[in-house]
Amino acid sequence: MTSPASQPVLAVEDxxxxxxxxxxxxxxxxxxxxxxxxxxxxAIVGESGCGKSTAAMSxxxxxxxxGPCRVTGRVLLEGRDLMALSPRAMRxxxxxxxxMIFQDxxxxxxxxxxxxxxxAESLRIHQGLSAGAAHKRAIELLDLVGIPSPAERCDQYxxxxxxxxxxxxxxxxxxxxxxxxxxxxxxxTALDVTIQAxxxxxxxxxxxELGMAVLLITHxxxxxxxxADRVAVMYAGRKVEEAPVAxxxxxxxxxxxxxxxxxxRWKDDTSGRLPEIGGTVPSPLAMPKGCSFAPRCGRAAxxxxxxxxxxxxxxxxxxxxxxxxxxx
Length: 328
Ligand SMILES: Nc1ncnc2c1ncn2[C@@H]1O[C@H](COP(=O)(O)OP(=O)(O)OP(=O)(O)O)[C@@H](O)[C@H]1O
Ligand SMILES: [Mg+2]
What we know:
This protein has about 325 residues and is an alpha/beta fold. The chain has a domain at about 10-230: Rossmann fold (3-Layer(aba) Sandwich), CATH 3.40.50. It has helices at about 50-60, 85-95, 115-125, 130-145, 150-155, 165-175, 195-210, 220-225, 245-250, 255-270, and strands at about 10-20, 25-35, 40-45, 70-75, 80, 100, 180-185, 215, 230-235, 240-245, 315-320. The longest helix is centred in the middle third of the chain and has 18 residues, at about 195-210. It is globular and about 65 Å long. The structure holds adenosine-5'-triphosphate and magnesium ion (MG). Magnesium ion (MG) binds near residues 52, 53, 103 and 185.
């Protein structure tokens, strides 16, 4: 099925995720909406705990792995509502529609099977390849992700591989069925700098060659600058700003986005000064009634405490009562 040019490949509409806990409901994601076109990369950034992985896992219907939860909203893959699918149909989507690279490669790899078998299995189930054809394709895929001597590597187990090699195997599995969307959750955090660059270059190349859409979750703004088209900034479960990367990095409108960027620049600075967003993220059990960033915000005024600000704008969306002035 080909999608009309105007229809995004992936659209997330008003996504909400709540975890019931003994101390009350933890609202991990609230009112999150975004869309992704073919061949486009959207980065999601924000401090630890702001809901990035929760959002990614709920798109794939994998949140139950983290315990009981309540998910609301809609996730549309080429217009088809994934929330309405049966578990079986959802497994199919995970095999062919959306590939995922997890924060921890061992989450996607089974320690008791060889890596060749794991890639071939996915090809047999989702693409109906024969055992021989699947094995041959598995070797090609390992070669594609830059694994030396791929035929020999096929017979090895995940524990025989270095962290960087495991990450590449996970990418090979995610890409095996040529998904329309790749969700990459901190794909390079566990890797050393050289391998990081290679993995990012690989994702970029495959995106170009296969026309995949990429949802990239990272805390590394340098990576965002290099590979993303647009960036969404999340704070305490909500999207507070989204814009083309050059616009947001050039002039962030939300005070939190501005703080994040400044903190990142200071990290590169060798003077040893600390990043300066004062205060801490509010507890998800005790969210402020109004804007959740207001207690840490230098621009906050009385009206910020009334209700969470709505997102406004189109090319650049901002949820703030008193944004930094930026050129239209
Ligand atoms: N099963 C669960 N039960 C209760 N709370 C949870 C559960 N899973 C996640 N949370 C909470 O949801 C919030 C969002 O977590 P999430 O892992 O999505 O953050 P993140 O942005 O991916 O962080 P990081 O950058 O550290 O990976 C956090 O406050 C976390 O403690
Ligand atoms: Mg995470």
